[in-house]
Specification:
D-Maltodextrin-Binding Protein, domain 2; 10-stranded mixed sheet; alpha/beta
């Protein structure tokens, strides 16, 4: 009995000591939020972070507003890449990493992330210049149109041959026995019948010929209108169109630039476009400006930021977005800061402060 009582008191003492230890650890963690010991790593590219004192960047401005609201002091440490920053975070050299840090399934296994403060994606940039003469007539030299014309001529040849076979004996003056002349006259009759021109210079006189001509009239009444409308539509669009690209399907067969190492490379190849890899976005945009490529596919926020800062280049960024990924702040796997920062991110979003920051750097995406 005495031993049981002794074990009971030892258990209580152990629980008290454990509680005190946990409280001391929490107090120590909370203290880091109110002292200047909070080490914040920054990494990534413009416009999310800048390595100068003139501008902060989207990610840094959002973090600074959260820190000011909480009255937290912090010191910044720059890294050359996101991966380097994550490695420093993993080795506890910094307390958090901010920038355009993509929230991926692989990274979530080793780090904690806030909710996304920005939804990034791949985008398409193209020129706004008007189509030249070649661009306007180019659709009429396409494989599709050539195949359509070839098919139409083949149909005319079949109809002309049938008319010649039906009429050559009874109407040799209209359909000579010479196959070349006879079939040629039959094709001419098929054309004037289809166009409803009806010069009256030729007409079938046999029952077979009239049946063939009648069937051809019905067919042309059904299909000729849509074919002519398609040609007229092509003429109108090629005459009024510009070189802008609105969706990824339009880059098929075209020269497209992107940055070496970007996931856009596989995306471009998937849509059967020719890939030109360069080392930087300004280099890719120069190729676009010089008309050496038809489009640039890259991270949409970077394209928008370039467009805002180079209005004289008449760059068009399509509204279509592909491969969406959220950007968030990264923390070690064991942290108690997420709930506080997520709450502040929600407040900033509800108060339109995040949107105001994004619009200032990227322009309003109307």
């Amino acid at each position: 009995m005495k031993k049981q009582v002794q074990n009971y008191f030892l258990s209580i003492l152990f629980l008290l000591l454990s509680t005190l230890s946990v409280s001391a650890q929490l107090q120590e963690i909370d203290t880091t939020l109110t002292t200047n010991s909070l080490k914040v790593g920054i990494a990534g590219s413009q416009p999310f972070v800048f390595n100068n004192e003139d501008q902060d960047g989207i990610a840094l401005e959002i973090w600074d507003r959260i820190a000011n609201k909480q009255e937290w002091d912090y010191e910044l440490k720059s890294f050359s890449s996101i991966e380097t920053g994550l490695q420093q975070l993993n080795s506890n050299q910094i307390d958090m990493l901010i920038g355009p840090v993509s929230i991926t399934s692989k990274r979530v296994k080793g780090y904690k992330f806030t909710q996304p403060f920005y939804q990034s994606s791949l985008g398409i940039a193209s020129r706004k210049d008007e189509n030249g003469l070649w661009q306007r007539i180019k659709p009429f030299f396409s494989i599709e149109l050539l195949l359509a014309v070839s098919g139409f001529l083949l149909i005319l040849a079949v109809v002309g041959t049938l008319l010649w076979l039906a009429e050559r004996h009874e109407s040799p003056d209209q359909f000579p026995k010479d196959p070349v002349k006879g079939i040629g006259n039959g094709m001419w009759l098929a054309i004037v019948t289809m166009s409803t021109t009806g010069y009256g210079d030729m007409a079938p006189i046999t029952l077979k010929g009239r049946v063939i001509a009648g069937i051809w009239m019905v067919i042309t009444l059904i299909f000729a209108g849509s074919m002519i409308a398609g040609i007229a539509s092509t003429l109108t669009l090629s005459g009024l169109g510009t070189s802008t690209i609105d969706k990824i399907e339009e880059i098929s067969g075209k020269n497209t630039a992107t940055i070496t190492g970007s996931p856009a490379i596989a995306f471009i190849k998937e849509h059967k476009a020719k890939v030109t890899q360069v080392s930087s976005l300004p280099e890719a945009m120069q190729l676009l400006k010089d008309k050496k490529v038809d489009a640039v596919v890259y991270d949409r926020p970077q394209l928008l930021y370039y467009q805002v800062n180079h209005p004289e280049e008449e760059i068009y960024v399509a509204k279509a977005e592909y491969y969406k990924q959220g950007y968030g702040f990264a923390f070690p796997e064991y942290t108690n800061r997420l709930s506080t920062i997520n709450l502040k991110l929600l407040e900033l979003a509800e108060e339109q402060e995040i949107q105001e920051i994004v619009d200032r750097y990227l322009g309003k995406d109307d």
